[in-house]
């Protein structure tokens, strides 16, 4: 069986490591299930120098090194791949995750050390790669869902890998391969709610893959059935992202059994649902999923005692609190109250903007009124709503910023908005790719290396405002200062007549506004 080393790249260096990488932990469990010998070097958790990565490379006779993550890990992965290849010239270096799926051909060009990359969902593709490595067969040209190197060393994409239809077949992630007590439990607390802030042993869980909404800034990278592989004009395969969806969620039984296991094994006191959107999943189940989940959570003894007894949360509370993401247009008070009763402490709401035009164009299925109502409805349930606000939308104007500030003042929300950022894989990225490349002097890779968590400005997709103005507007929204906004608009005067749009939308092969979805696998395909 193959000796497999997974590497979790460093991400968000400005913050402590808070999240066990769910995808890597799941793939590690799948590889172990298949009998492979698995180790993890969690570079993000340990935050050690490059010399430690070299020592890890030397530590065993690895057959496969697997590395992957979101695009924001690109800088680390690039350097790590150089080191791995130098230390282990014969190892099969496999890449995957969002950074690879969003631009597989570019990554194969920028990182010549990678042998094969997994595009989209890896649950079937990665075990197939390991089986082939075990058999000494390194021809991946017939393996679906990969980019491999042809005889000339050029990256070639194979056909699309079908999504698995039933995600309950997945094992639980291999949490034991990660430094829980040393790193992750120490960083359990966050500021979003009292229960989250007092958490001492938090673990992330995932209940679903998908979301029916089509927010232009969001990316799913094949996990929602949104990805195809098609031929370009030159006859080469490339990824195409769509509005197609394969909505899949775990059964409440799977989730509750997993959390019970986490409680019994690691004594967790908090579970963070990293699902894209709990409410869109609930809507997909016609409003049954969350209610059943909460009922089972309570029936199986996971309900926090503070909620059971109707008393304030304190250090004597026992049970498992939790949080997730909600949607301003899809929640309702009845479900929220049940969720609160089961221990939900806070929900993140991507409110984004309070401007009608921006909300109409965003694809979120919400509007300023629903946004405003959502705060009140969520607070009534006892759950804390955590609003997320963005500025720098393509249509951003003085009026749209004003609408957002007026609403924030009315609702009593203070926030420092994020900047609209065209992350690879999102509709914005492909629509504005040419403008992004222009803004980075023709160097797309420089943009990828520059990406952070959208609290920092990178490529601008706003048609009216440049980075300089958006930085000022961010401050003005933060201070909710309508006087400064009025002054800025007065100064702007007739500037529209002489300024050039900062970003210009263009059609892209890589994004199709259609509902064509990734095929779903048959049971035989999943088993084989
Ligand atoms: S609702 Fe959330 S998860 Fe769904 S597309 Fe929009 S941003 Fe993405």
Automatic annotation (TrEMBL):
Keywords associated with the record: Iron, Iron-sulfur, Metal-binding, S-adenosyl-L-methionine
SMART domains noted in UniProt: Elp3
InterPro entries: BchE-like, Cobalamin-bd, Elp3/MiaA/NifB-like_rSAM, Methyltransferase_Class_B, rSAM
Phylogenetic lineage: Bacteria, Pseudomonadati, Pseudomonadota, Gammaproteobacteria, Methylococcales
Organism: Methylogaea oryzae
Entry's Gene Ontology molecular function annotations: catalytic activity; cobalamin binding; iron-sulfur cluster binding; metal ion binding
Residues covered by the B12-binding domain: 4-140
Coiled coil region boundaries: none
One Pfam family in the UniProt entry: B12-binding
Cofactor(s) required for function per UniProt: [4Fe-4S] cluster
GO cellular component terms, A-Z: cytosol
UniProt keyword Kinase present: no
Protein name: B12-binding domain-containing protein
Keyword Iron-sulfur in record: yes
């Amino acid at each position: 069986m193959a000796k497999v080393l997974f590497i979790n790249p460093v991400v968000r260096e400005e913050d402590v490591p808070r999240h066990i990488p769910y995808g890597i932990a799941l793939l590690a469990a799948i590889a172990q299930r298949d009998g492979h010998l698995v180790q993890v070097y969690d570079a993000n958790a340990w935050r050690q120098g490059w010399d430690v990565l070299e020592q890890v490379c030397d530590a065993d006779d690895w057959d496969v090194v697997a590395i992957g993550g979101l695009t924001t890990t690109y800088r680390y992965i690039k350097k790590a791949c150089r080191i791995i290849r130098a230390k282990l010239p014969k190892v099969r270096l496999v890449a995957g995750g969002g950074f690879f799926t969003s631009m597989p051909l570019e990554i194969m060009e920028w990182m010549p050390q990678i042998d094969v990359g997994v595009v989209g969902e890896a649950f079937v593709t990665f075990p197939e790669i390991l089986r082939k490595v075990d058999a000494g067969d390194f021809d991946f040209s017939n393996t679906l869902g990969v980019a491999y190197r042809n005889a000339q060393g050029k990256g070639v994409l194979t056909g699309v890998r079908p999504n698995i239809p039933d995600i309950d077949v997945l094992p639980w992630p291999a949490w034991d391969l990660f430094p829980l007590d040393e790193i992750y439990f120490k960083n359990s607390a966050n500021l979003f709610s009292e229960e989250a802030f007092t958490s001492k042993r938090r673990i992330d869980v995932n209940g679903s893959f998908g979301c029916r909404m089509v927010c232009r800034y969001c990316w799913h990278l094949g996990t929602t059935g949104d990805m195809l592989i098609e031929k370009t004009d030159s006859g080469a395969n490339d990824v195409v992202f769509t509005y197609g969806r394969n909505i899949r969620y775990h059964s409440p039984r799977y989730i509750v059994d997993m959390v019970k296991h986490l409680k019994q094994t690691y004594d967790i006191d908090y579970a963070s649902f990293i699902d894209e959107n709990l409410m869109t999943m609930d809507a997909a189940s016609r409003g049954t999923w969350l209610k059943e989940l909460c009922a089972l959570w309570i029936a199986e003894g996971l309900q926090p005692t503070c909620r059971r007894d109707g008393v304030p949360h304190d250090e004597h509370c026992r049970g498992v609190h939790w949080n997730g993401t909600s949607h301003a247009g899809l929640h309702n008070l009845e479900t929220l109250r049940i969720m609160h009763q089961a221990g939900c402490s806070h929900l993140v709401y991507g409110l984004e903007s309070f401007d009608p035009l921006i909300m109409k164009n965003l694809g979120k299925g919400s509007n300023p009124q629903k946004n405003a109502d959502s705060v009140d409805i969520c607070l009534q349930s006892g759950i804390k709503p955590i609003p997320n606000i963005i500025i720098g939308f393509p249509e951003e104007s003085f009026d749209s910023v004003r609408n957002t500030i007026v609403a924030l003042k009315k609702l009593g929300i203070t926030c420092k908005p994020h900047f609209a950022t065209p992350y690879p894989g999102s509709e914005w990225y492909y629509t504005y790719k040419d403008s992004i490349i222009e803004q980075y002097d023709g160097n797309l890779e420089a943009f990828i290396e520059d990406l952070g968590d959208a609290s920092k400005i990178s490529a601008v997709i706003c048609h009216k405002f440049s980075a300089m103005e958006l930085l000022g507007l961010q401050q003005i929204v933060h201070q909710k200062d309508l006087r400064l906004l009025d002054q800025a608009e007065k100064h702007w005067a007739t500037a529209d007549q002489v300024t050039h749009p900062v970003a210009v939308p263009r059609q892209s092969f890589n994004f199709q506004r259609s509902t064509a979805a990734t095929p779903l696998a048959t049971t035989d395909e999943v088993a084989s």
